[in-house]
Amino acid sequence: FDRELLPRLREQFGKSSNLKLIEGDALNLDFCEVIQPSQNACIVANLPYNIATAILQRLIEQRQCISNMTLMLQREVVDRITAAAGSSERGFLSVFVSAYCEAEKLFDVPPRAFRPVPKVWSTVVRLRVRSKIAVDVSDEKLLWQIVSTGFAQRRKTILNNLRNAPGLIQELMKKRGGASIVLCEAGIPPQRRAETLTLEEWVRLVNAVV
């Protein structure tokens, strides 16, 4: 975190009755402890671009105290967040965010809006937190392990990535007769790649495994 900025903020806002300055690492912060679950907070932030994805995932993991988020991120990150099935931009983050939030791209922010001028464009995105996960899944933790495995090597087919799955997933696949049989039971052609799968298809894959 920015140790030089905090003294300036304290000097300007330290006596404010409706502002609380917190010195700490957002990746280790318990947001709900700060917010209180009953408040349903609205998060407005320009996240540090180098750790924006990690902070976003942490915010979503603590979504029980958050109603919506308006965030400025690097444009490419927002493209990944909002990418639909079949898009080359689609990845783990796309699937993860869509399960817990409704994402709406608001507007782009050009480099000239900042000083010093960066080399990248930014985009403001709104995420409305869902009251519950968008799909019914038997094992939520396993869902994200399988999605992560599916995107492990993007140029490989879903079959090849599942065949090379680590630990628990490999064991579960073997118990069901192997990755090919699991994909068949889920109704997913083995030659497809992870970015073509919808959230519902990932859930079918999980349900075919357990």
Please provide a written account of the structure.
The protein has about 210 residues and is an alpha+beta fold. The protein has 2 domains: about 5-130, Vaccinia Virus protein VP39 (Rossmann fold), CATH 3.40.50.150; about 140-210, Helicase, Ruva Protein, domain 3. Helices cover about 40% and strands about 15% of the residues. The chain has 10 helices and 4 strands. The protein has helices spanning about 5-15, 30-35, 50-60, 75-80, 90-100, 140-150, 160-165, 165-175, 180-185, 200-210, and strands at about 40-45, 65-75, 100-110, 120-130. Strands 1-2-4-3 form a 4-stranded mixed sheet. Helix 3 links the parallel strand 1 (about 40-45) and strand 2. The longest helix is centred in the last third of the chain and has 11 residues, at about 140-150. The chain is elongated, with a radius of gyration of 20 Å. It starts with a helix and ends with a helix. The model has no long low-confidence stretch (mean pLDDT about 95).
Q: What's the helix-strand series?
A: HHEHEHHEEHHHHH
What name goes with the CATH superfamily of the largest domain? Vaccinia Virus protein VP39
Helix content: 40-55%
Question: Can you name the CATH architecture of the largest domain?
Answer: 3-Layer(aba) Sandwich
Number of domains: 2
How confident is the prediction overall: mean pLDDT? 93
Model regions low in confidence, pLDDT < 50 over at least 5 residues: none
Radius of gyration: 20 Å
CATH topology term of the largest domain: Rossmann fold
Determine the number of helices (DSSP H or I, runs of at least 4 residues).
10
According to DSSP, the number of beta strands is 4
Shape estimate? elongated
- Strands of the widest sheet, in order across it, are 1-2-4-3
Biggest sheet record: 4 strands, mixed
| Category by helix and strand content | alpha+beta
Strand coverage percent: 15-25%
The CATH class of the largest domain: Alpha Beta
Distance between the termini: 42 Å
